[in-house]
Amino acid sequence: MYDRHIAPLLLEALxxxxxxxxxxxxxxxxxxxxxxLREATPRRYLTLDDHTTLAAARSDPAGFIAALAGPVVIxxxxxxxxxxxxxxxxxxxxxxRGQAAGRFLxxxxxxxxxxPALADSLAGRMEIxxxxxxxxxxxxxxxxxxxxxxxxxxxxxxxxxxxxxRDFFIDTLLAGGFPEAVARNTPRRRQAWFDSYLQxxxxxxxxxxxxxxxxxxxxxxxxxxxxxxxxxxxxxxxxRSSGIAQTTxxxxxxxxxxxxxxxxxxxxxxxxxxxxxKAPKIFLPDSGLLAHLTGHTADTLATAPGLPGDxxxxxxxxxxxKHLAFSARGLSLWHYRTQTGIEVDFLLExxxxxxxxxEVKAAATVDGKDFKGLRHLQETEPERFQRGIVLYAGREYxxxxxxxxxxxxxxxxxxxSPAA
Length: 420
What we know:
This protein is of the alpha/beta class.
């Protein structure tokens, strides 16, 4: 079992919050993590994947919750949303007795922030802790070093970043971060796992969440979105390409977001004096899933002159989000693009409005032109700008002027990289 860097935050939340929801995509390890914490915080474990337990929860939510004594884990809570109001009532009773903290640890494979009726029912009583697929640092056994914070303003000179070896990077891209996919040691078995994963999400989970029996357009839509990962979201173009009406398309898109199959990265637009593109970018949540859907293999990537830019940028987006999930700095993630086409792939922003720009280059070499967007940001936001970094698939850490650096992609998995 991997040590998860979100585990300490989960324990902190259970120490002072009545309801804690461990929320993330299917197969990210939520059940495994929840059960592993039972030694630190003993509690009964129930899963709504069990037919009998689910039937009991749906038929009499209040009675089901009232019968549970002491701390409890309820796995896959989105399968019985009726329980939320019953949990709220139980928490209020516990609070009156001074016994509320850590009573309910829930796990869910649907984003409750996009299901406001559920989130609002436990407002002030529930903390949401995100669980993403495995980060490269977790896979390498170095989970507590926050790479996003280090890239934002850490000391880049304290220890060298090792080279990004092409073969290792290709394997990392193809494996992604889902624990079961990472464990598969042949391309054929990994492909079979991704096929099963998509089938489970697009058939069972979508049907349950949307209360619809047939959504035949969704697999094709996921395929279309895979080929647009790391690009601007354009519903008009997607509607033309998919043949789905925009109103239906937007509904489907929200379903895919709710099930963590797509991530919408907002545009940074804090400066009203600038003419900035406001459209978000879209990303698949995992480079392995993206490679599966777009047909990339070890052979095709090894023989290509360079790595696919959308695949590498999707990988970096996923890694940034994994580290932001346990950032003590409250960092947020954006993209930056002006209406004249100047862009920075990612912006990290802290609570004080300070910015660090990150450009992604899939090649093994960097030159001054790769810093164009970062220099623009540095010149137009001098009070906010912390630094600009080009992450690339090369071997050396190199300074390209004041506050500008080229950093090998191996920063994500190197166990000797500096702490934030």
